[in-house]
Write a structure and sequence with these properties.
The chain is mainly β. Helices cover about 10% and strands about 35% of the residues. It is globular, with a radius of gyration of 19 Å. The relative contact order is 0.20. The protein binds S-adenosylmethionine (SAM).
């Protein structure tokens, strides 16, 4: 048998603070961002998730829907190799891949069933807002975590950078609700240094922007420190 096709449909959609791909952590569990999975269509029924609260973590299979139109190549340049060395796409977690399927383990915070909408509150996800969820499965430690596994080029967590806030950004942060939580989220996201891999080893005098929730965060990398310049509300 050398060909097989299967039609899949979203069972829900992920709501996250990440309104664009730039700035999203490269793997789950690196930033404590909170989000929701809103079950959709025929799947928006509590029967589908009955008993799920017994698990602390879930596997999400999802579509890299923002990249589907760009297709895939057999070899890619992963950030872990500095963005210039090529290896096979199946030897990476590239977001441009055959069938465009991603998988992330996330923390299940709670189950919500209100106003005829079943939602799972989750945290630690690495997904852009609106990501279609194709399947949800319990994380089973005895078989999913393999102590002696070799993670190849991705054995260790990515290195983090220090993050500082200008006094202007500090003052602006104070005007938002939950500013302590917001500051921690911005710090965790930017500590990953979202810049392309080939830029990360040196500071550059470019200003960057990421959007979290309805906020626009302007930042730059000075020496080896990430500096948050401004935190402003995105114009509607
Ligand atoms: N943990 C998943 C995996 O291993 O399949 C995803 C890893 S991938 C490197 C994580 C990146 O996917 C994020 O940093 C973000 O840039 C990108 N991403 C997240 N949601 C996406 C979406 N819906 N479409 C395309 N890219 C997405």
């Amino acid at each position: 048998m050398n060909s097989f096709t299967q039609q899949v449909e979203a069972v829900g959609f992920c709501r996250t603070p990440f309104k664009q791909k730039f700035g999203i952590p490269r793997q789950p569990g690196l930033v404590e961002a909170k989000g929701f999975i809103e079950l959709s269509g025929q799947y928006n029924h509590s029967d589908f998730i009955e008993g799920i609260e017994q698990y602390s973590h879930l596997w999400l299979l999802f579509s890299f829907h923002e990249n589907l139109a760009h297709g895939f190549k057999a070899k890619v340049r992963p950030p872990r190799l500095g963005g210039n060395e090529k290896i096979g796409v199946f030897a990476t977690r590239s977001t441009f891949r055959p069938n465009g399927i991603g998988q992330s383990v996330v923390k299940l915070e709670r189950v919500i069933n209100e106003n005829n909408q079943v939602k799972l509150e989750i945290s630690g996800m690495d997904l852009v807002d609106g990501t279609p969820i194709l399947d949800i499965k319990p994380y089973i430690p005895y078989s999913d975590s393999i102590k002696e596994a070799n993670g190849g080029m991705a054995q260790e967590e990515p290195e983090l950078k220090d993050v500082e806030f200008t006094s202007k950004a500090e003052t602006q942060l104070q005007t938002f609700d939950d500013h302590a939580k917001l500051k921690k989220l911005i710090q965790q996201v930017l500590a990953q240094d979202p810049r392309p891999a080939y830029k990360q080893s040196k500071p550059d005098n470019k200003n960057y922007f990421i959007s979290l929730y309805d906020l626009n965060i302007q930042w730059c990398c000075v020496t080896s420190i990430i500096k948050v310049i401004e935190v402003t509300r995105l114009l509607k």
